[in-house]
Request: fold
Amino acid sequence: MLNLIHRYFELERNRATLGREVVAGLTTFVTMSYIVVVNPAILKAAGVPAGPCMVATILTAVFGTLLMGFYAKRPFAIAPYMGENAFLAYTVVQALGFSWRTALAAILLAGVLFLVLTVVRLRQWLVDAVPAALRYSFAVGIGLFLTFIGLNQTGVVLLGNAGAPLRAGHLTATPVLVAIFGFLLMAVLMIRRFPAAILIGILATAFLAYLTGVAAPPKTWVSLPPSISPILFSVDFRGALSWGFFPIVLTIFIMAFVDTMGTLIGVSARAGFLDENGNLPQIERPMIADALSMIFAALVGTSTSGAFIESATGVEAGGRTGLTAVVTAICFLGTLFFSPFISAIPPQAYGPALIVVGLLMLSPITRIRFDDFTELIPSFALVALISFTYNVGIGITAGFVLYPFCKLVSGRVREIKPGLWVLAGLSLLFFVFYPYP
Reply:
């Protein structure tokens, strides 16, 4: 059995070991396991029943991540996206008045379109058109985005007011001190080159949170999952086929496209998967896994899914093959019965991991040409807008628009590949039709 695993995932060729792959899969799972609780909580605001939504979230993560592991053979986990779920709940349903069933139809349509574009290689053609400077900017922008999420969830940075949009939290409060302990513990373990530093830091900090009363320990460890039948196959196409719904479909399409591409390329840049031209070999495989999981998510009743940026934690823990994803998927499957324990892991425990990963994802910035303003300006805008708008889609689409603009005004239009003009046009449509609050 072990020999079969070694051969199928090509552990030796990828300089991976069974132990590191297992630890990496566990690390990815622990870091992103919050989605099991957070996604249903957000979609509840759209009227989606929380219990069935939790099951749909888990099943989507299991389906997509197994597909990523066995078919694409990459250490990336798939789950419902943060950001897209909030867009669905607070904008599509609450602000614009569409039903969550109609929103699922938009997700399904976008997923089918993704699959078609991937199979005919148009999606890869578009990805190949993205210049290296923007590819490396994805990693930096996503890293800072993760850092901000971690700082906010741990209470180190809080939302302020109109005069000061952000402010420091109560840095001597017990919850914040627990989170700071978690960050320092991970830092020490990393400095000492200790294996599974991030995973050990998460678990140790979680138990400290229980001991100090910052978080309540799980009252029970095992429970039967609720029925998914109230939301299964609840897609409603009637409201989705109107012209007024077109901006919703377009927004979901663009957001999912750039989120997935940014995650795949950004995390791959950190893992060393990109070739000398900044391309991810056989990128169509993870893209097909992503498209199929998006279709699956809509059918079982949850929001847009795709490659998760928290996969970077598993990569940092040594994950290099699809075995990492398979381990993560198995862990997610277990949450169907151990959701009380998973939901008890507090943000003070997984938040520091997001901060650490953000730190580690900064290194690709050294590969951006700072002496060429046509490369630097769009890269800077991409990173800044991802970080300061709390929206990966807005940052990346801004980069797609600014890059050809800068090349055009500099007289270097020949450096722009045809596919980038298509992305720039879609990005402009994204900004025109985006349902601003």
Notes: Strands lie at 78-80, 157-159, 166-168, 305-307. DSSP finds 18 helices and four strands in the chain.
